[in-house]
Specification:
about 180 residues; alpha+beta; 5 strands; elongated
C-alpha cells in the first residue's frame, strides 16, 4: 500500500508518504493538512488515542476523512436466520476488535477536538457469494465460530453451503465522517 501511495503521489509537490504507528505518528505536531483513516480504527488498540494523535498532527484548517464499518449491522440473507445472526454476533464479539467503531466515529472525532462536518452512512451490498466470502470471510469466520462453539458444526456448515446456492445477499453499514480542525 505504501508503494502504491508513493507511485500515485510521485508527481505531487508537498506530498510525502510515511510509514508509522497510528498511536505515535511520525510527523511533527501541526504539520498535516489532509489525512484519511480508512478501515483501520476497528483494528487498533485504542481508537480514541489514535484520533488524539491525528489531532496533534493536523494543523488548523486541516481536513480529515474517517471511514469505518459497523459490523453489528452485518446482514446475511439465509433461510437459517439464526445462523446468520450467530455469524454476525461472532464477528462483532470475536473477529473484529472494535466492531461498532463506525457508529462512534463522529463522537470520537469530536472528543479528539475535531469539528465534524459530515457523517454519511452507506450500505455496501454483496450479491455475489464469492466476493462476499472473500471480503467478509464467511467460510473462514464460520469455521472459527464452529471451532469456538458459537455455532453447532452441522448447522454452520449447512448455512455456509446454502449461501452459495441461488440468489445471495449480504450488507453492512459503512460510516464516513469528514471533519476539520
Amino acid at each position: 500500500m505504501l508503494e502504491q501511495a508513493r507511485e500515485r503521489t510521485s508527481g505531487l509537490h508537498g506530498v510525502e508518504v510515511r510509514e508509522g504507528d497510528v498511536h505515535a505518528l511520525p510527523v511533527d505536531p501541526g504539520s498535516v493538512d489532509r489525512a484519511k483513516i480508512d478501515r483501520v480504527l476497528m483494528h487498533v488498540e485504542e481508537p480514541a488515542a489514535a484520533l488524539a494523535q491525528l489531532y496533534r498532527a493536523t494543523r488548523q484548517g486541516a481536513l480529515v476523512g474517517l471511514v469505518e464499518p459497523d459490523w453489528d449491522t452485518l446482514a446475511i440473507d439465509a433461510e437459517d436466520r439464526q445462523s446468520s445472526r450467530d455469524f454476525t454476533r461472532y464477528t462483532t464479539e470475536e473477529v473484529v476488535r472494535h466492531a461498532t467503531i463506525g457508529r462512534s466515529l463522529g463522537r470520537l472525532a469530536e472528543k479528539a477536538g475535531f469539528r465534524v462536518e459530515t457523517v454519511v452512512a452507506t450500505t455496501p451490498v454483496f450479491r455475489d457469494f464469492a466476493d462476499a466470502d472473500h471480503t467478509l470471510g464467511l467460510g473462514r469466520n464460520m469455521q472459527q465460530a464452529i471451532n469456538d462453539g458459537y455455532v453447532e458444526r452441522d448447522r454452520g456448515r449447512q448455512w455456509f453451503n446454502s449461501l452459495a446456492e441461488g440468489s445471495f445477499y449480504a450488507s453492512f453499514t459503512l460510516v464516513t465522517v469528514i471533519c476539520s480542525r
